[in-house]
Write a structure and sequence with these properties.
Length: 239
């Protein structure tokens, strides 16, 4: 029996990027994906210290006054993703797939499960037993949040995605109620293992897991290639 043909997904490692820059890039890519000018895209990056407020966020879930946040260098941005409040910082991997879900079974529900499975497999590789929580999408270890999921879907094209705590400063998460849940605390791969973890190693495991779970062939590209829309989609190359 012939093996399933995998679709192409462009892979771009962006390093550290501000939240507004990442959103602007995603929006441009989502428009290009809808027009089938590019293939699906997987963006992997880190954000500097940033609080984001999803569509259903309550401002009171930010626990620090704005002037103190500014002193600490923590940016605050509204987001069109679902969910409540989240925190990003160095040592946390952020995974933003721009994908045409119209071509995938299960649409949004199945896609969320796939993103959770990506993280679960990475954590399993580190012998960390994480679990889903149906009421609050993401990954949890003994009630502590190790990964969060927040998405935006427009015309069948996904934005935003998954964040996974590799080796961040966990005290920095105390500026918010995680996902709007008072009393919840964050954990990380490094914290669960009791020693530092290479972000590059974790990133590669995320990439490999994403390719397996989403059944895609990843094709590395540079940021300027994406921004210049100089890559034709597989669909556009079919004669």
């Amino acid at each position: 029996m012939p093996s399933e043909k995998k679709s192409i997904c462009l892979l771009c490692r962006l390093g550290r990027m501000t939240y507004p820059d990442a959103v602007a890039l995603q929006q441009n890519l989502a428009r290009a994906r809808f027009a089938e000018k590019i293939d699906d895209v997987l963006l992997i990056l880190e954000h500097p210290p940033t609080i984001t407020l999803g569509r259903f966020a309550k401002p009171e879930n930010i626990l620090i006054p704005p002037d103190i946040l500014a002193e600490k260098g923590i940016a605050v941005h509204a987001s069109n993703r679902g969910g409540d409040v989240t925190f990003h910082c160095q040592g946390q991997l952020v995974v933003y797939p721009i994908m045409d879900l119209r071509k995938r079974p299960g649409l949004l529900r199945g896609y969320i499960a796939d993103l959770e499975e990506v993280a679960l497999r990475v954590l399993m590789a580190y012998n960390i037993a994480a679990e889903r929580w149906l009421e609050h999408h993401g990954l949890w270890v003994d009630g502590k949040q190790i990964g969060a999921i927040g998405l935006h879907l427009s015309h069948g094209i996904s934005m935003h995605g998954l964040s996974l705590n590799v080796n961040p400063d966990l005290k920095s998460f105390e500026v918010i109620n995680l996902c709007g849940l008072p009393g919840k605390v964050a954990t990380s791969i490094a914290s669960e293992l009791g020693h530092d973890i290479s972000l590059e190693e974790a990133e590669q495991r995320v990439i490999d897991s994403f390719a397996d779970v989403l059944r895609v062939e990843l094709k590395p590209v540079l940021r300027d290639q994406l921004e210049g829309e100089c890559i034709e989609s597989e669909a556009a190359r079919v004669v």
